[in-house]
Structures are given as C-alpha cells and as structure tokens.
Amino acid sequence: MLILFNPAAGTRRRRRLVRALAALARAGLPAEVAETRHPGHATVLARAAAAAGTPLVVAAGGDGTIAEVAAGLAGGASRLGILPFGTANVLAWELGLPLRPDAAAVILAEGRPRLLRPGLARFADGRERLFVQMLGAGFDAAVVQGLDLGLKRRLGRGAYVLQALRELPRYRHPRFLAELDGEPVEVAGAIVSKGRLYAGRHLLAPMARPGAAGFQVALFRRGGALRAALYGAALPLDLLPRLPGVELRPARRILLRGEAVPAQADGDPAGTLPVTIEDAPGPIAVMLPATDRAGLAIPPP
Ligand SMILES: Nc1ncnc2c1ncn2[C@@H]1O[C@H](COP(=O)(O)OP(=O)(O)OP(=O)(O)O)[C@@H](O)[C@H]1O
Q: What are the contacts of 24-28 at 24+ separation with CB within 8 A?
C-alpha cells in the first residue's frame, strides 16, 4: 500500500497521518508514505505506483487530492483508498467513510472495493481534469478562486463562509449558457454533481449517485448578491434544492460556456469556462466500508 499524503490539505493533517499509520500497523498492514510536493504531483505518483503494480494507492487529503490520485489510477488495476484529511471532505461524507483517522485506516484494511464513476472536464485550452464530486461555475467558483490557502488552513470550512461574504459585493454574477445533452439553459450558476452532497455534508442533489453514469446538474437560474446570500443560508439547512430559482436536472454531457466565468472542481480552482463535462472513460475501484450505504457496484472479479 502506498499513501500519497498532501501536506497542504486540511488541518491537523500530520497528527491524523500518525494516527492512521498506527492503526494500520495494529492491523498488520505495512504502508509506505510519499508526500505530494505541488498540485498535480499526486497524479504523477499514483500513475507510477499503478504501473509498478501497487494494489492499493491511498489519497491522504481532501477531495482535490482524491481526484488527483484517481486520475493517476484511471485505467489501471490499483484500488483507490481514502484517508479523509481535507477541509470539506465531501466525498467521504457522500460515501459514508469515517473521518476519524484510525477508523478510516480500518476501512483500508477491512473494507470492500466498490466502483466509483468520476467525471471528466475538458477545457478549451486542452486541459483535462478528473473530478470525484462536483464541478461548479459561477459564484461558488469565485469563492474558491479567491480563497487564501493560509486562511483555509487556519479556519477550515469557516474560511469558505468568510470568503463568500467578501465575494458577495464584488462578484458580478454574469449569466452564461449550460447545455444539458444539447439543450441550452441560461443560468447565473451551475453545479455539475456526481454526488448528493456539497460543501461538507449539505444536501444539493438528492437524486445523484456517485456510482452511476451521468450527473445531476443544479442550475441557478437567477443571480445577484441577495440571492447568493439566500442560497448560502439555505445550504446548511439542506433547503437549497427546494428554493425557487434552483433547478435540478439529469444530464450525461454538459457544456458550460460564457465570458470570464470562473470554474472550480472538487473545491479547487479550475480556470474559466468553456468546459465540457462527461463521465470519465472507466470506473475506479475504491475501498469502502463492508456495509456500503452509497449503493456502489461491486467490481468484476
Ligand atoms: N505540496 C503541496 N503544496 C501545495 N499544494 C498542494 C501540494 N500537494 C498537493 N497540493 C494541492 O492541494 C490542493 C488542495 O488539496 P485538497 O483538496 O486535497 O485539500 P482541501 O482543499 O483541504 O480539502 P477539501 O477539498 O476536501 O476541502 C490539491 O488540489 C492539490 O493540487
């Protein structure tokens, strides 16, 4: 087993790593640890580990780290493990993974592989980016892009709230086009989601399933600071999907296009529109608790 540890993710991550390693040692599972040195490094390390036949490659970090490791494992036989040491850890909540490091380590030792279906975003400049939970365009991406990493490290999820308040008066809420399987809709924001949850464990897309093909797309038909504030207040109450002006639609292929509209993928900055989103070419086997609550398929033997 190789653990790819992102030293820039989440808070108290080194303490969490020590606890996870101790739990793995107790379970009799030897683990090698490699630290990521820069964004994208986890993909390079994971690809090399998969090529060398490492059976389990573990992302120790948040959703961004998991996505990078998954990108490196795509198409290979290695399984993905998760030690959720990030800030929001949306995928861990989605999949019912424990956040306690020792409990998460036990899943690596005793869990079962299940098939996760990531999304793949293709940008106009040729960049491709795999994502495991969601890709957002509009106000939420402006918040992610403006976030100071030091602040995120100190305040954790509170940093997103603070940054949203800063962004409210200055973001211009440009409208853009979301084409869902060829059908255009004008929106002020869109979140293309693989899972039900958003920004931690808050409900965004109740019909989404991370093991299924396709996406649920949350469309924000109207923009403006007041409306963005209302959506932000509704999110922790799990009321966002029910608010007027918020529509949820299923789609397999999504094109988002507009002028200077920011994008974020799995909570990390992802440039600007246009972007085309489809399922990644193949599923990835991820280690989950033996009693999987997310309903993911079992990989073929
Ligand atoms: N050594 C490094 N220095 C700076 N950034 C790094 C380093 N290694 C990886 N990264 C980048 O850090 C980004 C943030 O990590 P990640 O998303 O895992 O943590 P997080 O944002 O704290 O958690 P979450 O996404 O769950 O809120 C990753 O997208 C990755 O590209």
A: 24/105, 24/108, 24/109, 27/105, 27/106, 27/109, 27/110, 28/109
- Tell me the pTM: 0.96
Backbone angles phi, psi at 61, to 5 degrees: 170, -155
Alpha carbon of 61 to ligand 1 centroid (Å) = 7
Whole-number Å distance between alpha carbons of 80 and 288 = 10
Atom of ligand 1 nearest to the CA of 88: 27
58 burial type by CB count under 10 A (0-12 exposed, 13-18 middle, 19+ buried): buried
ipTM of the complex, rounded to two decimals: 0.97
| CATH code of residue 10 | 3.40.50.10330
Establish if 96 belongs to a structural domain. Answer: yes
- Write out pLDDT tens, residues 211-225: 999 999 999 999 999
Q: Is the CB of 269 under 6 A from ligand 1?
A: no
Residue 272 in contact with ligand 1 by CB distance below 6 A: no
Q: Is 298 a domain residue? A: no
Are 223 and 189 in contact by the 8 Å Cβ rule? The answer is yes
